[in-house]
Amino acid sequence: MKLAPFAALAACSLLVTACASRPDETPVVPETNTGGATDTRTTGPVPGSIADFEQNAGDRVFFGLDRFDLDNASRETLRRQAAWLAQYPGTRILVAGNCDERGTREYNLALGARRANSVRDFLVSQGVDASRISTVSYGKERPSCTQSTESCWAQNRNSITVVTSGAVS
After folding, report:
1. Residue 63 phi, psi (nearest 5)
2. 164 and 89 in contact (C-beta within 8 Å)?
3. pTM for this prediction
């Protein structure tokens, strides 16, 4: 009876630990070195995969309030995207323009389209074939953050690049 609280605590600890693992974590692959000992190293995402694109190029850029022009940080992310796309010429992408919750639906759909087109135009200027790029505006319909705060609104003023085909599985 005296051990019951400790057993319950141990069971809860095991449950929390089991639930904490994420399936999208970088896999650990054991390697054998010349001495016969096992060496564990992370392999990272598979080159050419969607995870590789998101990790190494970045999948989104952010905009100011009522803006669709690209700042220096956005241009740098898009240069990395263009370089990644040059490595994988069979890959097609969708550029989705998004807005925060303020403003009318119509205004935000138009602003989201301008944001997506701004990204597409920059990628084309960096050598990506325009036929590989589709655009869509979601306006304020697909927020990544749902709080009504300035920091949340800033996260929702974005353009997200999604690999739609041609990525390695």
Report:
1. -130, 155
2. no
3. 0.75
In this prediction, residue 169 carries a pLDDT of 76
DSSP of 20-64, one letter per residue?
A: H--TTSPPEEEEE-TTS-EEEEE--SPTTSHHHHHHHT-SEEE--
> Which residues does 59 contact at the CB level (< 8 Å), separation at least 6?
53, 160, 161, 162
Q: What is the 3-state secondary structure (H, E, C) of 141-168?
A: CCCCCCCCCHHHHHHHCEEEEEEEECCC
Which residues have C-beta within 8 Å of that of residue 54, sequence separation ≥ 6? 45
- Tell me the per-residue pLDDT of 90-139, one tens digit each, with 9 for 90 and over: 999 999 999 999 999 999 999 999 999 999 999 999 999 999 999 999 99
Q: Are 93 and 85 in contact (CB under 8 A)?
A: yes
Q: Which amino acid is at 117?
A: N
Residue of 67, 56, 53 whose CA lies nearest to 158: 67
Look at the block and give the residue holding tokens 């009318």: 104
> Is residue 11 classed as helix, strand or coil in its secondary structure?
helix
